[in-house]
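thought: user wants a sequence for this fold. calling inverse folding tool.
action: design(structure=
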């Protein structure tokens, strides 16, 4: 071997060694988090993301502060100071036609480097297994995967809210088996980068007060496959609502989204609200038939909830399972009343 060939091989070896030691691994997952006035919740969310059992060099966490006027920004910046895979952005300007959470997520998407965009809310704590378990559901033609969410166990009302979420997500899971897309929940959802930009992102979708549903449906309409994941390894925990006034604000926004959703979902919600009044009217002429209808409906709803609690290993919710039907019937009626009553939709301190 000539001296020149030796030098050439040595240089090539040095280049390869430098590449192996100093080249950063490409980011695979970008977690996009929008936060507005979340000083009470944001640190819990950030800490759960820090505990993910996924290589830190393969994820980035992009946090968009939606012009908060409390201590949200200070808390975020203090927390991420020693964690380089977190990035903080103060969002004060708006993309044309967008506002609120959709505007924040649109801007974060253009900064994201990952092949997958993961979404959670600032009041959510995800399990350590979240990313690994969600990624398992992506196949070549999958564009969006929806996860599961319940409330943090703080009081009885929170338990009923948890059962309501799990019941709804179980119904979505059932319809998803038959490739019927109803909605996606943006507090626990992931999409491919390819699907997001193929549909034009939030800029093309436009503003929606239910931005998660709008994104989910846009990806489904673009002929991508969707998955409603159903395993305890992706169950995130949200901070619960603590009063009926908070519930009213939330459900007014939800009803606006439901009334923009596919007809089958609208029919399900309206029929749920009308079920008790209908059997009450039937009881005037045929009490036995009315009683049978009520018992059958109670058994169906309770069975679905019981299955969800057992299959998803949410044992702390046992005590509320057999009372859930009464809560659900009352809430369904109340939601329709809220929707038809006058009033603005308020969200994160803004009115729409």
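)
observation: tool returned 352 residues.
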């Amino acid at each position: 071997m000539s001296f020149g060939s030796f030098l050439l091989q040595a240089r090539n070896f040095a280049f390869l060694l430098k590449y192996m030691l100093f080249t950063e691994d490409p980011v695979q997952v970008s977690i996009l988090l929008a936060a507005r006035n979340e000083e009470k919740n944001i640190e819990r969310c950030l800490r759960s993301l820090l505990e993910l059992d996924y290589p830190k060099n393969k994820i980035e966490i992009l946090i968009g502060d939606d012009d908060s006027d409390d201590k949200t920004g200070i808390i975020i910046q203090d927390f991420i100071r020693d964690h380089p895979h977190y990035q903080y952005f103060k969002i004060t300007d708006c993309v044309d036609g967008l506002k609120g959470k959709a505007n924040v997520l649109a801007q974060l998407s253009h900064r994201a480097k990952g092949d997958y965009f993961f979404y959670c809310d600032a009041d959510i704590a995800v399990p350590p297994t979240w990313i690994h378990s969600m990624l398992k559901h992506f196949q070549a033609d999958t564009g969006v995967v929806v996860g599961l969410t319940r409330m943090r166990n703080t009081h009885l009302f929170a338990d009923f809210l948890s059962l309501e979420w799990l019941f709804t997500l179980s119904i979505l899971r059932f319809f998803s088996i038959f490739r019927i897309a109803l909605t996606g929940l943006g507090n626990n959802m992931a999409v491919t980068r390819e699907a997001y930009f193929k549909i034009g992102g939030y800029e093309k979708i436009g503003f929606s007060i239910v931005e998660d549903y709008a994104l989910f449906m846009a990806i489904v309409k673009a002929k991508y496959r969707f998955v409603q994941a159903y395993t305890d390894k992706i169950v995130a925990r949200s901070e619960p609502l603590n009063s009926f006034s908070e519930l009213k604000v939330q459900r007014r926004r939800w009803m606006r989204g439901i009334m923009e959703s596919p007809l089958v979902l609208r029919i399900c919600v309206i029929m749920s609200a009308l079920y008790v009044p209908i059997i009450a009217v039937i009881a005037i002429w045929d009490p036995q038939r009315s009683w049978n209808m009520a018992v059958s409906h109670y058994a169906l709803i309770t069975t679905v909830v019981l299955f969800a609690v057992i299959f998803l290993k949410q044992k702390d919710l046992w005590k509320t399972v057999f009372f859930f039907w009464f809560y659900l019937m009352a809430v369904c009626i109340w939601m329709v009343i809220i929707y038809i009553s006058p009033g603005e939709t308020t969200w994160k301190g803004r009115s729409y």
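thought: summarizing for user.
answer: Here is the designed sequence. Residues 23-244 form a domain with the Spore Coat Polysaccharide Biosynthesis Protein SpsA; Chain A fold (CATH 3.90.550.10).
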